[in-house]
Amino acid sequence: MPDTATAAPAQTPTVIRREDYTAPDYAIDSLALAFDLEPGATRVKSRLAVAPAHEQGSAADVRPLKLDGEALKLVSIALDGQPLAEGRDYRVDDSGLTVTAPPQGSFTLEIETEIDPKGNSELSGLYLSNGIFCTQCEAEGFRRITYFPDRPDVLTRYHVTIRGPKDSCPVLLSNGNLAETGELSDGRHYAVWDDPFPKPSYLFALVAGDLACHEEGFTTHSGREVALRIYVEHGKESRTGWAMDSLKRAMRWDETRFGLEYDLDLFNIVAVSDFNMGAMENKSLNVFNDKYILADPDTATDGDYAGIESVVAHEYFHNWTGNRVTCRDWFQLSLKEGLTVFRDQEFSSDVRSRPVERIQTVRALRARQFPEDAGPLAHPVRPDSYIEINNFYTPTVYEKGAEVIRMLHSLLGEDGFQKGMRLYIERHDGQAATCDDFVAAMADANDVDLEQFKRWYSQAGTPEVEVTGAYDGDSGTYEMTVRQTCPPTPGQPEKQPLQIPFAVGLLDAQGQDIPLALEGEDSGATSATKVLELRESEQRFRFPGVPEPRALSYNRGFSAPVNLKSEQSAEELAFLMAQDSDPFARWEAGQRYALRLLLQAVETLQAGGVPEFDTAFIDAFREILRDPQLDKAFAAEALTLPGESYIGEQMQPLDVDAIHRAREALRRRLAETLTDDLQEVYTVNTVTEAYSPEGEQAAQRALRNTALSYLSALAPEEGAALERLVDHYHAADNMTDRMAPLRLLADIGGEAAEATLQDFHDRYRDNDLVMDKWLALQAVSARPDTLERVKALEEHPVFSLSRPNKVRALIGTFVQANPLRYHAADGSGYRFHADRVLTLDGINSQIAARLLTPLGRWARMGEERQRLMKAELERILSAPDLSRDVYEIASKSLEG
Ligand code: TRP
Ligand code: ZN
């Protein structure tokens, strides 16, 4: 019997490397597809016009034609009308089909395959979501539909015929323009779609089913009339208004801010209930997870509305950044994702509060991307290698990628950035481009050198920036010394200095910004915020002619995605918290101050003591509560303490119990000291107008629910606090106000909590998306029996391991958002986690691999938990028939 812990998998999967990229051997000039839809056996006929993409001087230059294919049944294959023979003319294996000796020059290939949408639980390729045929082809799903060069640098024109039953599939959709429809015998009908824009296979889409449609129109800047259609399951059409509205605003915004206009007469969105990710930007036929389309006040929170607005915009923005200009290979994924996330963040900032958007973005970056960059799965924004590309749709590629674009924007300014965008699109429209192409367009349009900047694409890890300052009273000069380092990451032991735009300000004793110019700059360059350009591991900056500053404000607006190491006194932080003119830096000072107190409290608790908290911090909180000028959404952010996971990132080994107790102690201390102010804020911010998901009233709800949360920390088991929560819940006329107290009640537990959870369940049992919330808020509960409860909920009729939203809501929330219970000392959380990953791997490997990542953070834990976590990773790795997806995450996680 071999030692299972060290047994290698039967076959170690191939590593794909960026440096191995070669251009395709063949171009596909056009592609005709015909689908005969049947749930268990769909026939797909394809006709490819193939042309060699390189010189063929003689027959000796002819290369084999390799087509990708996976989980396909080959029915027939013919070349220029002649059937091909297996063995003699072509061969087939697990990964595709090779025509071994094609003729010289161009030819036509006809292939027929059979696929099984009903049995497709991976939700990649053509599958059924609640009876609706739909596709997901990014990144490599098209090869599960037919044999094809399934790579983003093969662009072709698609001509698609869909045949299906009229009763169950009255709606037949694909990309581009509807060319023809008609009747067939046996109760079937057909539709023909023609997409005039050449596209890679990952942007192909097909949807067929019985769907309701919400249609409106949009007139583009140059006068094109575009029909906008949102398709959903029947009964859900009343919840599509906000998505439609968001789409129109996104279309207008892209015209005004980026000068980019929509390019077809039709734009379709389909929302389905089972989907691996949030949404997909298929050309003119975006497919969405229901979660990012459906909303009404009774079932969606303000946060859900914001999420819909940004995802609808994101997918729409891909039409130019992703579709018109696509990626050469999957290593370039951030070319479209980082840029498109930047664009959707800018959209949200322009239509909502810019500071609040920035705060929320940074909170998410720290919760998801910084940990990734500090762990075993750290990789550059443009990775160098992968085993399974689906594992690289990561916070690093998306969110850090967006930060990289934002830094270019800071360095070049809005005008310079837009000049670069215009050149990028002018050069690459209709092409598959690289990250280097993008940076080159930015550099050329602005006549600047961005060679060093490119390291942001190749170097993983979150840089650390340390600032020290000294004031020379004699010369009136402030000198800042700035050092940058970057911790090693897997495969990158040595790091090089980056080009970092680092925004700083100096405040005088009255809290006013001191106008700054660097030594040698003329007075015209004076400004309140100075963006220092860091390029070396250590640099000095001198600001002459300034009074002695009272406080320093660093990395204003979070101008770079770095960790700040500088020591600032508690007084300085309290001062910045109250005075900084940069709202982000003001929020950040509060977070840093809170973090410091919380980490001290953790140490006190570990030593068996009772934590105490600075009154200066509590006073600063009081000021925020009492400041009538302050934007209420900002105040809500400023009053929210750093989360347990983020606190945990700052300590080693991580002590989840002490962190939870420390944070609760500070919350209670704030609530006890500031009860009257919190009561006042709670009362004053009651919204009386009819519900709207944004603006002042959403800000009021956010602030009021923050106050509610603190007030519930006051001896929660006592009647008054409990009663307030239950009353708040029953008085609510919208989901935001129902969820806030319910979330708190789920933490407190007891009869009132159970009764309210039951009420919520009974009220929304038929609404899938709301039931996801119900599952999630029980999975995140701090109650000691949460794991037992999660296991019990797996038996609830609404739960299913084959539905990604359910898995994410229940299991995903438990393993990712509940560190306190996930890291139970007996290892029960880890065992449960590994069991579910293994079961899921046989159903949906993409979802299984994504779920797995928390196990990889073992190095942060104490010895015993490390041992338990690694044992689970080893158990996963020794399981038979592991997918490439799970194999890659588990093996890299174990290497640490
Ligand atoms: N391109 C999509 C987006 O960011 C992401 C996506 C949707 C995706 N579905 C997927 C990625 C499935 C991998 C697999 O908007
Ligand atoms: Zn995207």
From TrEMBL:
Q: Which reaction does it catalyse?
A: Release of an N-terminal amino acid, Xaa-|-Yaa- from a peptide, amide or arylamide. Xaa is preferably Ala, but may be most amino acids including Pro (slow action). When a terminal hydrophobic residue is followed by a prolyl residue, the two may be released as an intact Xaa-Pro dipeptide
Q: Which residues form the Peptidase M1 alanyl aminopeptidase Ig-like fold domain?
A: 461-566
Pfam families registered for this protein in UniProt = DUF3458, DUF3458_C, Peptidase_M1, Peptidase_M1_N
Signal peptide residues are none
Residue ranges occupied by any Peptidase M1 membrane alanine aminopeptidase domain in the UniProt entry: 242-456
The record's listing under SUPFAM superfamilies reads: Leukotriene A4 hydrolase N-terminal domain (SSF63737), Metalloproteases ('zincins'), catalytic domain (SSF55486)
Q: Which UniProt keywords apply?
A: Aminopeptidase, Hydrolase, Metal-binding, Metalloprotease, Protease, Zinc
Q: Name one GO molecular function term.
A: alanyl aminopeptidase activity
Domain Peptidase M1 alanyl aminopeptidase C-terminal intervals: 571-895
Keyword Cytoplasm carried by entry: no
Enzyme class name: hydrolase
Say yes or no: keyword Protease present: yes
Q: InterPro entries, alphabetically?
A: Aminopeptidase_N-like_N, Aminopeptidase_N-like_N_sf, PepN_Ig-like_sf, Peptidase_M1, Peptidase_M1_dom, Peptidase_M1_pepN, Peptidase_M1_pepN_C, Peptidase_M1_pepN_C_sf
- For this entry, the protein name equals Aminopeptidase N
